Amino acid sequence: MTMSSTLNGVPHYKGILFDLDGTLLDTANDLGEALNAVLTNHGLPKVPRERYRPVASDGAKGLIELGFGAGLKNFDYEQLRVEFLDYYENHIAEHTCLYPGVAALIEKLDQHQIPWGIVTNKPIGLTHVLLPHFPELESAASVLGGDSLAQRKPHPAPLLQAANEVRVAPNECIYVGDAPRDIEAGNAANMCTIIAGWGYIASDTDLTTWQADIHCAHPSEINKMEFLFTKSSNR
Predict the structure, then answer these.
(1) What is the pLDDT of residues 148-159, one digit of tens each?
(2) What does the pLDDT average to over 36-50?
(3) What is the pTM of this model?
């Protein structure tokens, strides 16, 4: 675990950042519907939910590669990407929902005046289209997308920028995500890293290889973390 301020000798954290897809919001079905719409347009079979769900965190690129497979070389990838994003933007919150426990976690963070933010690789334009559908997330002190900066995760730059925006030192910040790039970025930013085990993670994944500090199976587990919610004298 990264070094942070301490409270009675226990590591203490003052802020928390989250990935979006697969961490705060379950967006897989809307992303999968966008993929299947593109596949249908090109006369190809749809991808079932159990196949696209573990790939949802990889966004348009990962889903298009899944759906088109080896035949992708016969298509204009950029055109497929435009088709995918256009459909997704127009159907962005038809099936998307907060994960169970997320609303309670955000409410507790706000009650304890713990600043929090969102760092996603989703394009910032789509992020701003999606978030208003979920007023529970409106108190985010920072929202950064995959194109907000020159670098994106797994580069630590977006996390460092978000920490600056929520006014918390990186080593006093937690980052929560459901993909290896999330943990890699968090570790590189010297943050405490938490795997969102409720997200888009295949059942046979060896999570020990991610080198995260903590693995949580449900958002409610973060609610119980004393090193986040015990108030320090210098917050």
Answers:
(1) 999 999 999 999
(2) 98
(3) 0.93
Q: Which DSSP symbol is given to 88?
A: H
Q: Count of alpha carbons within 13 Å of 233, Cβ hemisphere only?
A: 3
19, 21, 26, 30: the catalytic one is 19
pLDDT bracket for residue 233 (50, 70, 90): very low
Between strands 5-7 and 173-177, the pairing is unpaired
Please tell me whether residue 218 adopts helix, strand or coil conformation.
coil
Helical H runs in the chain?
28-41, 49-52, 59-68, 77-90, 102-111, 124-130, 157-166, 180-188, 220-223, 226-229
Q: Which of 40, 63, 90 is the last residue of a domain?
A: 90
Identify whether 234 is part of a domain.
no
Number of folded domains that form the chain: 2
Specify whether 19 is catalytic. yes
Q: For residue 116, give the 3-state DSSP assignment.
A: strand
